[in-house]
Amino acid sequence: GDSVTQMEGPVTLSEEAFLTINCTYTATGYPSLFWYVQYPGEGLQLLLKATKADDKGSNKGFEATYRKETTSFHLEKGSVQVSDSAVYFCALSPSSGSARQLTFGSGTQLTVLP
Amino acid sequence: EAGVTQFPSHSVIEKGQTVTLRCDPISGHDNLYWYRRVMGKEIKFLLHFVKESKQDESGMPNNRFLAERTGGTYSTLKVQPAELEDSGVYFCASRRTSGAGETQYFGPGTRLLVL
Q1: Among partner residues A4, A95, A106, which is closest to B41 by beta-carbon distance?
Q2: What is the pLDDT of residues B8-43, one digit of tens each?
Q3: Cβ of residue A49 closer than 8 Å to a chain B Cβ
Q4: Is the pLDDT of residue B1 over 70?
Q5: Degrees (nearest 5) of the Cα angle A78, A82, A83?
Q6: Whole-angstrom Cα distance, residue A17 to residue A79?
């Protein structure tokens, strides 16, 4: 079945540091890929998505590129802020099937220190 | 436009008791999903509704869990009787269509603790 493998956390960075959170997936066909973020005390929010190979999703300074050849969707940000402290989830939605339920990675806790 | 709402935000119950969680999706979203995150592990799919019909309940852990979506609007997830391993965060999500790449919008979750 489908699966998502996500970089283990927690990750602690200083403000303005470069961030990479690795995500790789296993799925048939061409799934859609997502990054969701959960800020403290809040629910899951969509951060960015990509629906086909070589697409780049971007939002709030975060970027991720859909790499079919390496089955990856790594999340990057050039300069993190304290307000980026949150749990980040990589997820995929299958390209077929009626439910198209999301398969999530285990989440990566990011803490940014001032 | 109001987002997905869930009630209660927290619930603490004893083993053997019953708990009912509620989800109100975004208006006009026919697709409704339940997910669960247990013990800081990955978020796992429980089931999917299209309007009032269950389309896929392959993720439901056992028959102690019962989900309904009467009238195709809000949904409830009942756990009866609750066990210790049911503790976790229960998320509800909705989306407008079943098209590929369509975004699912999540509620804030219900944090359930079974003692």
Answers
A1: A106
A2: 999 999 999 999 999 999 999 999 999 999 987 889
A3: yes
A4: no
A5: 95
A6: 5
